[in-house]
């Protein structure tokens, strides 16, 4: 008979292996993240300062109004820069595209082992920005917003979680609960920095998420 302690060890090992195969880590690894995420007190002040308004019109919207994935340096574009920044042990080829590495997606708590299965999320979606004030921006400002590497507007996430989110605000879509604090601070900072408005229900959802910090 198998000794109970050994049996438990084998069970734990099999569970970990199955989780890795499924793309799920039992504990999130340390990884880089978006820059300029504020402390809770700063995020609270910025949330309080944001203008509350009704949802604007989507008339005239298209993703082409927000040119994105601009060249950054050498052969790298913004998408590739975020993949390098948010990944773990990422190695890139001469074209700057990751040849290997892994990415922890905090939106759904999974680890992905292929860059092709990762998306770069606009934390405040382009359509959400449009109906929150970006429809009145210049073309160059919309382009800067869509390629913002200086503030927490871009985050690598699994393709499945990014596409589940779509263009929803936090009243309709949230990441896993363990990421509510960080996600709310990223959303608030981006809207505050870019001077976007928010709706009453959106502010309430953000406040609830921020309270988990």
From TrEMBL:
Signal peptide location: 1-32
Translocase recorded as keyword: no
Domain GmrSD restriction endonucleases C-terminal: start-end pairs: 113-206
Keywords of the record: Signal
Superkingdom assignment: Bacteria
Pfam families tied to this protein: GmrSD_C (PF07510)
PROSITE patterns from the UniProt entry: TAT (PS51318)
UniProt xrefs under PANTHER family: AMP-DEPENDENT SYNTHETASE_LIGASE DOMAIN-CONTAINING PROTEIN-RELATED, SECRETED PROTEIN
Protein name: Uncharacterized protein DUF1524
Lineage per the UniProt record: Bacteria, Bacillati, Actinomycetota, Actinomycetes, Pseudonocardiales
């Amino acid at each position: 008979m198998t000794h109970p302690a050994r049996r438990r060890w084998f069970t734990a090992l099999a569970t970990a292996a199955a989780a890795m195969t499924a793309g799920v880590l039992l504990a999130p690894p340390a990884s880089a993240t978006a820059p300029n995420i504020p402390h809770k007190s700063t995020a609270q002040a910025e949330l309080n300062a944001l203008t509350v308004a009704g949802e604007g019109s989507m008339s005239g919207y298209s993703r082409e109004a927000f040119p994105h994935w601009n060249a950054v340096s050498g052969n790298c574009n913004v998408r590739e820069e975020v993949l390098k920044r948010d990944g773990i042990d990422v190695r890139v080829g001469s074209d700057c595209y990751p040849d290997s590495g892994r990415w922890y997606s905090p939106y759904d708590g999974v680890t992905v082992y292929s860059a092709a299965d990762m998306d770069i999320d606009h934390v405040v979606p382009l359509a959400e920005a449009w109906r929150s004030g970006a429809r009145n921006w210049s073309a160059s400002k919309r382009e800067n917003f869509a390629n913002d590497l200086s503030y927490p507007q871009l985050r690598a996430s699994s393709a499945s979680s990014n596409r589940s989110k779509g263009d929803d605000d936090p009243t309709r879509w949230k990441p896993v609960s363990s990421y509510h604090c960080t996600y709310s601070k990223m959303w608030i900072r981006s809207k505050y920095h870019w001077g976007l408005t928010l709706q009453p229900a959106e502010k309430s959802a953000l406040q609830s998420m921020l309270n988990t910090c």
